[in-house]
Design a protein that fits this description.
Layout (H helix, E strand, L loop, with lengths): L1 H14 L3 H13 L2 H8 L9 E5 L9 H17 L11 E6 L5 H14 L3 E4 L6 H11 L3 E5 L8 E8 L9 H10 L15 E2 L3 H10 L13 E4 L6 H11 L5 E2 L25 H10 L3 E5 L6 E7 L2 E4 L2 H14 L5 E5 L5 H9 L3 E4 L3 H4 L5 E6 L3 E3 L10 H17 L4 H12 L1 E10 L4 H12 L4 E2 L2 E8 L13 E5 L2 E7 L5 E10 L7 H23 L2
Helix pairs in contact: 1-2, 1-3, 4-5, 4-7, 6-8, 8-9, 9-14, 11-12, 11-14, 11-15
Length: 548
């Protein structure tokens, strides 16, 4: 076993094109560090949520240039096999974007070289830019595929590789398995042509086209008075968001200076995710000093949008479900037509809003790769701060256009002497108070997650928080409307729970929702208290049932 491990590591080392990971791996081999070598060579990174994501480092279980070159070659082979024109002036175009993480520019350049060597055309965005600009560019340029090098809001040590096809949405089965099979078929990196040139570096025309498209998100003549504090969370959103706000005529956002510049080490946050404890502390401090109407945050690749509001004497984050409902209500008020869609882990309030407005409504599996494919989509969201408000422009979540739309809504309400919280209260009275929470467990050992799922399947709870479970579904079997996925869904009398492993992080995620009837605004304090009590009890009982 030891000799085989060392042999595999030496074979990888001989092919590794990156001096940094070569040096790293050579030290591990010289030290005979079998534990670390086993962790890196115990398998290969697998395509998950639309592509690859993992920790940077040497070996097939890490993100590195060798893994990326194989992934790019597999994608190129898949595209050529599936009818993509290649060779000559009519060769299919693959557009490539990247964020400001460690190695992102290298991975983008390697991808461009592999596509060019495979007889396809490659075009790379001019610099680190938000993921939604890449998603827009695919459709705008008529590309057959797109790649975004990003690990979104993962820790600094991670990077990732997100793949889109020509419709501008992320890959779904069976394309992911088809690409994975082509990756597995690559015997050696030496078999992958990588010319030194031949691809195009795009200029700012595609970014200008994206910014011009953001104008379509807003109502002509709508008020543009809401003042914002904005944090880019050390990512790539600042310049694009500030430019979009200037075009729209909003007041210039007040920046959280400590987090404004791209920095792959994310020095001010433990995790560069607005949902994580402490991540918004600097933004709230800036808001206390400047008293804006709302606080807006993007995650590092700016495809998510977080919103915070003043609640009493201080600031608090709105939940993704609250922002999702607010944007939906705003679009309904503006007369939007088309299908409203969300993932199954998001609040059922969206369905109530759509039904009341006489609009079609769809539920999908988790992830915008599914939401973006809904027929006739007009608006889609999921609770993890992802919103698609312009599906004709960007068929993915977009933290820039979502920020514009929520700021327009805040401006409309401001002109009426009202706030986003006032509108949330109105929605609760109209549709019932839909309160959501999450039980999320980050693990070092992935077997903890599989054991929790096994336990829930073999010994399913019959009630949570004293509420009887009226329906229990194992989603691995699929439903009449959903393809199979690893998850469990419990329907209770006035509540709903979904349990699933994360597709992008070592986490078990449990999504909780309770619905408390509300007859008048005066009943809201009691309804909030009851909802909080129920959510706490559901979380406690579910944690016990899952053994976490």
């Amino acid at each position: 076993m030891h000799d085989d491990l060392i042999s595999r590591a030496q074979t990888w080392l001989a092919e590794d094109p990156d001096p940094e990971t070569r040096e790293e791996l050579a030290k591990l081999i010289d030290a005979g560090d079998t534990a670390e070598l086993s962790a890196r060579f115990g398998g290969t990174l697998q395509f998950g949520t639309a592509g690859l994501r993992g920790e940077l480092g040497a070996g097939p279980m890490r993100m590195n240039r060798g893994v990326v070159i194989r992934a790019a070659a597999g994608l190129a082979a898949y595209l050529k096999k599936n009818g993509t024109p290649h060779g000559g002036a009519d060769a299919g175009l693959v557009v490539i974007g990247y964020d400001a993480r460690h190695k992102s520019a290298d991975f983008a350049r390697d991808t461009a070289a592999v596509m060019t060597g495979a007889g396809l055309r490659a075009a790379v965005l001019p610099r680190p830019l938000p993921t939604p600009v890449l998603a827009f560019a695919i459709r705008h340029l008529g590309a057959v595929a797109g790649v975004e090098v990003t690990a979104s809001h993962n820790p600094p040590r991670d990077n990732g590789y997100k793949v889109y096809l020509g419709d501008g949405s992320q890959i779904v089965p069976p394309a992911d398995a088809g690409i994975a099979a082509e990756i597995d078929a690559i015997a050696s990196l030496h078999d992958v042509p990588r010319p030194e040139s031949g691809w195009q570096t795009l200029d700012d025309a595609v970014l200008d086209a994206y910014l011009a498209r953001t104008d379509a998100v807003l109502d002509a003549g709508s008020p543009r008075t809401a003042r914002t504090v904005y944090t880019a969370m050390h990512g790539v959103g600042r310049d694009v968001l500030v430019a979009a706000f200037a075009r729209a005529g909003f007041p210039e956002p007040v920046l959280v200076a400590e987090q404004a510049d791209p920095d792959p080490d994310f020095p001010t946050v433990a995790f560069p995710n607005p949902e994580e404890p402490g991540a918004m502390d600097l933004a709230f401090a800036r808001a206390r000093a400047t008293d804006p109407d709302l606080v807006i945050a993007n995650d590092p690749d700016a495809d998510r949008c977080a919103v915070a509001v003043k609640d009493g004497g201080d600031w608090r984050m709105l939940r993704g479900d609250e922002v999702g409902a607010l944007l939906a209500a705003h679009l309904v008020r503006r007369g939007a037509t088309g299908t409203f869609a969300e993932s199954i882990v998001s609040s059922s309030l969206l369905g109530r809003i759509a039904d009341k407005a006489g609009l079609p409504y769809e539920e999908t599996l988790t992830g915008f790769k599914w939401i973006a494919r809904v027929d006739g989509l007009r608006y889609g969201y999921e609770e993890a701060l992802g919103y698609c408000v312009d599906p004709e422009g960007v068929r993915d979540k977009d933290g820039i256009t979502a920020a514009l739309l929520i700021t327009e809504l805040a401006s409309v309400l401001k002109e009426q002497g009202r706030t986003l919280l006032d509108l949330l209260d109105d929605l609760a009275v109209e549709h019932g108070l839909h309160a959501t929470d999450q039980l999320s467990v980050r693990v070092e050992d992935l077997s903890v997650i599989s054991e929790a799922m096994r336990r829930l399947r073999e010994q399913p709870p019959t009630e949570l928080a004293g509420l009887a479970i009226t329906r229990a579904e194992d989603l691995t079997r699929g439903t009449d409307r959903l393809p199979p996925t690893d998850g469990l869904r419990y329907t209770l009398d006035g509540a709903r729970v979904i349990v699933r492993p994360s597709g992008t992080e070592p986490k078990l995620k449990c999504y909780l929702e309770v619905v408390v009837p509300v007859t008048a605004h005066a009943d809201l304090p009691a309804a909030h208290a009851r909802a909080s009590e129920l959510l706490t009890a559901v979380k406690r009982d579910l944690s016990s049932a899952a053994g976490i």
